[in-house]
Design goal:
Largest sheet: none
Shape: globular
Oligomer: single chain
Structural class: mainly alpha
Number of helices: 4
Order of helices and strands: HHHH
């Protein structure tokens, strides 16, 4: 994954307070995005 993509994901992670709302780390978040399951995770 490119640095640019990671930077954008980091901004998304912070803006949407992913750690506080869902209790997952940035590393887990990135892995979910990479696998394409993040949207499904939110809907679950």
């Amino acid at each position: 994954m490119s640095d640019d993509v990671l930077d954008r994901l980091g901004e998304y992670f912070v803006y949407h307070k992913i750690l506080e709302r869902y209790g997952i780390t940035f590393e887990v978040f990135v892995e979910k995005v990479r696998r394409g399951v993040w949207e499904a995770y939110l809907a679950a």
